[in-house]
C-alpha cells in the first residue's frame, strides 16, 4: 500500500509512504535524494529530467519487506520554497523530520529505521547520523568526501580526460587551463564564503546557492562519521564519474558500527547498467540512454542481502561476485 503523507510542523513536507504486506513492526527505509531540485521520485520540475530513481528504489525496498518514505525537496513537487535558498543544514533538518515521522509511525519498528542516501544525500545522511540514532545507513554513489572534495575530484577527472586528447590536450597544457580552472573555482567559493546571502548572482545573471556551498565546504564528513554507531553499507559503481571509490576504504576505520563496501562492476552514478568506458566528458551525452536501462541487478542483490542479514533476521543470500566487498 502506498499513500500521500505530510509531516513537519513549521514547513510541511510532502511525500509517499509505502507499506509492505503484513501487520506492524516493519523495518523502514528513508530515501534521501542527491543534489539539485529533485522531487520524491528523483525528477526535476516540469518534467525536464525524469530519472524515477527514488520511486524505483522505494518499490524495490518495499517488495522485500520494508516500509519506505521518499519526500519532495524544497521547491519541488508539492513542496513550497526555493531549492536554491536551502542550505545543507536545512536539508539535514528535513531528513531529521522524516526520520522522526517514521519512528512515530505505528507500522514501523522505531529501532530499525534505515537511511538510504544517494550522491549528495550521503553527506546529508552523514550529518544526520552524527546527531540522530539510526538503525542503519546505506551510502549510494558517495560517502566519506565532503562536497568540495567531490567537486574537486570531478574537475580533476574532467581535466585529465581533456589533457589526454592529442591536439586539444597540448593546447590546454600550453594555456595552463587546469590551474586557471582551479583558481576560478577557489575564487567563486571565496565569494560564497564572504557573502551572508542564501543566493548569490555570478556574472550578474546566474544565481548560485551560496549558503548551500558555504555550509557544505565547512562540514567535516570524517569527524561526523566517527559518531555513527550503526551498520553501514557503501555501494558504488566502477563506472561512477561523480564519486570517488578509493576514498571509501577509509569508512571502516571511521564509523563505530560495522561497515561494508561494495563496488559494482558496470554500474554508473544513478545505479544503472553502463557497459561503456568510464568518461566524465561523455556522461552528458549518454544520460538519456542510460535512464532507459534497469537498476543494476547486482546492486539490488547486494542491498537485499545486506538488509536481510542486518534487519530481517534472515540468512544472508549467497552474494554475487562483486569486487571488492570490504568489512
UniProtKB/TrEMBL annotation:
InterPro entries: AB_hydrolase_Est10, AB_hydrolase_fold, Hydrolase_4. Residues 52-271 form the Serine aminopeptidase S33 domain. Keywords: Hydrolase. GO terms for molecular function: carboxylic ester hydrolase activity. The keyword Hydrolase applies. This is Alpha/beta hydrolase. The lineage of its organism: Bacteria, Bacillati, Bacillota, Bacilli, Bacillales.
